[in-house]
């Protein structure tokens, strides 16, 4: 199953890269979201996929060594939250930039003065 | 010994205050530092004269084999004495020459720092230490040439000197590293005594070229000679000190220092030919100028060429001549520069065609100038004569290129006699010409240096043999590796060198009588030729650097984000892909067993929604597709045993969709901005990135180098963290500082969002 997911992640990366090269700033943001999703999935897939064994400890039972790896999950959880923070900031920034520059074309936003 | 060098930097830092305190006597006060050095080094003469040497080592970076080791032998002692003696008089001289200059304090700071650096350079034994001092002399020289920084020409000359010498310095550093690899030590004495035959080492050629580039740029050898005459934009004390007696000799010093280990046929050929070429270029240029300082500068270049050539010839006689000529040149050239500056100061011009008949007003200066010029021309009984005799004698014996070099040197000696005559006779004899200032004898401070240096030149030639025994033979020992048996004497009897001297003297005087015709003619010829000269190349190169800088700024920093992305993505994935293919190869373990249909559906959903989001022309459709994608990711997380991730992803995805819908509708519709060609290019680049990621990912799944460290968290989650949700325990207990940082990031983002919204509100109020 990991190989299938690898194809998914690679597709997400390609789409993200493509969108980040676009001139419209909204497409850039979409590229950014795709990229963070791709990165999260990448870590998740690389750490190995486990079905039906969440990293939880049943009360009174010794912890089983066969649960899914909790460490990458903790990392991804942090990454999801951070990327949401970045996204919120970026979206408001773009909104603000559009108000000032009156364009969403990145090629028109070359000057530092406006 | 380290104290002598470090004290210099301390005195330099204190110089501005001392100048304020001592007023017009500042020159005399500050000269106490180099004078104390003279006394200190003079004490060493008896010890070193016996052929002993002294190595003092202080740890600096012991792990890198870099130490502050100072080595005192005949060669470094000779240089240290020259630096401190000439330095003493230059400081006294500068006090008078720059009297009342507003930046006198700064001047003293830099020139004393230079003195200390130069001292460090000649004493250093570790190549890295030597390099540090070497660059310090370049930098202080830059400040001194540009001392009159209000003048554009001074700034330009300073920058030129810096570029040439520091460029050479970089080559030198590389050369030093190669030498250290070859000799197995960073100590010069260690390299020279390592027993490794350097010329037979595979790295010898590269090291030789690099070291020579460093030495040739510093010592203004052809084709790098052009910076030195331009450096005459500096005040005269600087020219007298740095650009005649000390700094420009650093390259020659280095070559002499390395001579025992580096000498080979190649070394000999390069040094001899470059030296000879420099001599002939410089002596012709000297004759073509009217500015006294320029003439002296070119005669300095000539002297440096001579020294390099003598090292190249490398016979016993030649090395003796090297040491003698080095000493003689420092003495007379320092004196000549100080005198030329004194004339300029007293009269207001240094153009020879405007100077005439000053003998009545400045008799002492006239006499001193005559004596110094006699040493320059090699006329007995001055020390320059002994040097010239030895030079001719060594050329007579030289095997390299035989009589060609001899002819060349007789020719240049003739020209040099004419130059010396022009300097000594033209300004002082004949009809008096009106000058900008009324001529008067320069003050004592400006004449003391020349007097002492000329007296030394006289004494040295009269007592040549004792001088040789006391100091010079130990210098020769350092340069040659053995004590030469040549005996110095003023009178050798009537022999071939004496005849050559006489011939060059007579012809030189005859040439001088025609100076007023020859000089303008040569000046025109040189002006024509200089269009093809190396200085032209320097300016072309500087223009080229500016041009390529602006070109690459326009090309790389063009402000188009899309192009930046293309460059970034391509370079990242090309490098990553290359490394990957080299270390792993192109295996692709395609293993799709162990998968269920509904998993394929989720995967298909992910791919389709991503593709749709990046191709649709409608904003809302894109946002919706992003939503689908986000929820599919959440499904994946939940299905593969990560319920916490799934929950978080669901919440975040919902918020994201709401945020996007709210904000994006204030932005314009999607329009097709880029051309089909750009889209095609971006698709190729993006696909390339995706493919590289795919291969890396599959390989990462395939390879497992280390066991997971997670078993610790699984085992101790309940024991230490008192929680049964291991992911939660990691986040809020084991890695709690990370979570704290994450909270900070979110808080900052929230503050940023808030302030931007507030900003907008205030705009509206306006």
In the sheet with the most strands of chain B, the strands line up as: 1-2
The biggest beta sheet of chain A is recorded as: none
How much of the sequence lies in strands of chain A comes to under 5%
Q: According to CATH, what is the topology of chain A?
A: Helix Hairpins
Q: How is this structure best described in words?
A:
The complex is a heterodimer of chains A (114) and B (766). By secondary structure, chain A is an all-alpha fold. Helices cover 64% and strands 0% of the residues of chain A. Chain A has one domain (2-50, 70-108): Helix Hairpins (Orthogonal Bundle), CATH 1.10.287. Chain A has helices at 2-20, 25-46, 70-101. In chain A, helix 1 (2-20) runs antiparallel to helix 2 and helix 2 runs antiparallel to helix 3. Chain A is elongated and about 65 Å long. The relative contact order of chain B is 0.06. The model of chain B has no long low-confidence stretch (mean pLDDT 85). Helices cover 75% and strands 2% of the residues of chain B. The longest helix of chain B has 32 residues, at 152-183. The radius of gyration of chain B is 37 Å and the shape is elongated. The two termini of chain B are 72 Å apart.
Helices and strands, with pairings:
The complex is a heterodimer of chains A (114) and B (766).
Chain A: H1 2-20, H2 25-46, H3 70-101
Chain B: H1 2-22, H2 26-30, H3 32-49, E1 54-61, E2 66-72, H4 74-97, H5 104-123, H6 127-145, H7 152-183, H8 188-192, H9 204-218, H10 227-230, H11 236-245, H12 249-262, H13 265-287, H14 292-313, H15 316-347, H16 363-377, H17 383-397, H18 402-425, H19 444-462, H20 464-480, H21 496-513, H22 515-529, H23 534-556, H24 561-584, H25 597-615, H26 619-639, H27 643-664, H28 676-702, H29 710-721, H30 726-734, H31 736-765
Antiparallel strand pairs in B: 1-2
Helix pairs in contact in B: 1-5, 3-4, 3-20, 4-5, 4-11, 4-15, 4-19, 4-20, 5-6, 6-7, 7-9, 9-12, 11-14, 11-15, 12-14, 13-14, 13-18, 14-15, 15-16, 15-17, 15-19, 15-20, 16-18, 16-19, 17-18, 17-19, 17-21, 18-21, 24-28, 25-26, 26-27, 29-30, 30-31
């Amino acid at each position: 199953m990991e190989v299938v997911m690898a194809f998914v992640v690679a597709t997400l990366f390609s789409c993200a890269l493509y969108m980040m090269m676009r001139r419209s700033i909204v497409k850039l943001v979409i590229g950014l979201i795709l990229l963070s999703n791709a990165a999260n999935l990448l870590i998740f897939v690389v750490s190995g996929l486990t079905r039906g064994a969440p990293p939880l400890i049943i009360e009174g039972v010794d912890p089983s060594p066969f649960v899914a790896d909790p460490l990458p999950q903790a990392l991804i959880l942090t990454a999801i939250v951070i990327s949401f923070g970045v996204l919120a900031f970026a979206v408001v920034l773009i909104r603000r930039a559009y108000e000032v520059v009156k364009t969403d074309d990145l090629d028109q936003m070359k000057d530092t003065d406006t | 010994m380290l104290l002598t060098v470090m004290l210099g930097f301390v005195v330099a830092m204190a110089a501005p205050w001392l100048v304020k305190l001592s007023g017009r006597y500042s020159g005399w006060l500050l000269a106490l530092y180099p004078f104390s050095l003279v006394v200190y080094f003079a004490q060493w003469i008896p010890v070193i004269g016996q052929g002993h040497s002294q190595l003092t080592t202080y740890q600096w970076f012991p792990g890198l084999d870099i130490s502050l080791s100072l080595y005192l032998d005949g060669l470094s002692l000779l240089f240290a004495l020259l630096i401190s003696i000439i330095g003493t008089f230059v400081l006294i001289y500068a006090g008078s020459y720059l009297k009342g200059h507003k930046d006198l304090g700064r001047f003293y700071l830099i020139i004393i720092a230079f003195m200390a650096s130069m001292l460090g350079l000649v004493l250093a034994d570790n190549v890295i230490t030597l390099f540090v001092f070497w660059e310090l002399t370049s930098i202080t020289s830059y400040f001194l040439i540009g001392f009159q920084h209000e003048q554009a020409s001074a700034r330009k000359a300073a920058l030129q000197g810096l570029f040439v010498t520091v460029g050479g310095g970089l080559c030198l550093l590389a050369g030093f590293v190669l030498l250290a690899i070859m000799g197995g030590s960073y100590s010069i004495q260690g390299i020279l005594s390592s027993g490794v035959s350097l010329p037979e080492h595979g790295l010898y050629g590269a090291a030789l070229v690099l070291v020579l580039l460093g030495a040739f740029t510093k010592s203004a050898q052809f084709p790098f000679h052009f910076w030195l005459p331009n450096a005459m934009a500096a005040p005269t004390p600087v020219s007298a000190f740095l650009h005649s007696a000390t700094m420009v000799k650093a390259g020659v010093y280095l070559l002499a220092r390395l001579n025992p280990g580096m000498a080979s046929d190649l070394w000999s050929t390069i040094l001899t030919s470059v030296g000879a070429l420099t001599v002939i270029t410089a002596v012709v240029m000297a004759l073509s100028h009217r500015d006294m300082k320029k003439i002296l500068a070119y005669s300095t270049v000539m002297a440096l060429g001579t020294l390099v050539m003598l090292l190249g010839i490398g016979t016993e006689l030649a090395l003796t001549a090297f040491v003698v000529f080095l000493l003689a040149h420092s003495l007379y050239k320092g004196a000549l520069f100080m005198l030329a500056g004194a004339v300029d100061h007293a009269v207001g011009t240094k153009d020879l065609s405007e100077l005439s008949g000053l003998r009545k007003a400045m008799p002492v200066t006239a006499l001193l100038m005559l004596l110094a010029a006699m040493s320059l021309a090699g006329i007995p009984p001055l020390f320059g004569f002994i040097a010239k005799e030895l030079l001719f004698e060594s050329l007579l014996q030289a095997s390299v290129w035989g009589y060609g070099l001899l002819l060349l040197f007789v020719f240049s000696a003739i020209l040099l006699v004419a130059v010396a005559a022009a300097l000594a006779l033209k300004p002082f004899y004949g009809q008096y010409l009106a000058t900008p200032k009324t001529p008067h004898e320069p003050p004592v401070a400006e004449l003391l240096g020349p007097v002492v240096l000329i007296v030394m030149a006289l004494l040295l030639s009269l007592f040549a043999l004792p001088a040789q025994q006391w100091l010079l033979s130990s210098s020769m020992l350092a340069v040659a590796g053995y004590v030469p048996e040549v005996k110095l004497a003023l009178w050798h009897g009537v022999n071939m060198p004496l005849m050559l001297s006489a011939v060059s003297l007579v012809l030189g005087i005859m040439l001088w009588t025609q100076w007023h015709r020859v000089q303008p003619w040569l000046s025109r010829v040189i002006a024509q030729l200089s269009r093809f000269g190396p200085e032209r190349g320097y300016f072309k190169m500087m223009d080229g650097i500016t041009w390529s800088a602006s070109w690459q700024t326009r090309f790389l920093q063009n402000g188009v984000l899309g192009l930046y992305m293309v460059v970034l993505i391509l370079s990242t994935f090309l490098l990553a892909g290359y490394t990957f293919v080299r270390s792993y190869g192109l295996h692709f373990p395609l293993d799709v067993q162990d998968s269920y249909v509904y998993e394929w559906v989720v995967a298909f959903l992910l791919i389709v929604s991503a593709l749709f989001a990046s191709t649709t022309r409608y904003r809302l459709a894109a946002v919706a597709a992003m939503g689908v994608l986000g929820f599919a990711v959440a499904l994946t997380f939940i299905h593969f045993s990560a319920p916490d991730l799934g929950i978080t992803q669901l919440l975040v995805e919902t918020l994201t969709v709401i945020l996007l819908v709210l904000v994006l509708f204030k932005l314009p519709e999607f329009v097709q901005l880029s051309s089909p060609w750009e889209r095609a290019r971006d698709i190729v680049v993006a696909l390339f990135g995706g493919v590289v990621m795919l291969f890396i990912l599959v390989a990462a799944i395939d390879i497992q180098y280390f066991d997971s460290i997670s078993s610790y968290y699984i085992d101790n989650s309940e024991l230490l963290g008192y929680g049964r949700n291991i992911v939660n325990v990691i986040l809020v207990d084991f890695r709690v500082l990370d979570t704290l940082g994450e909270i900070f990031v979110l808080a900052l983002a929230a503050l940023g969002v808030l302030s931007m919204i507030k900003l907008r509100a205030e705009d509206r109020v306006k």
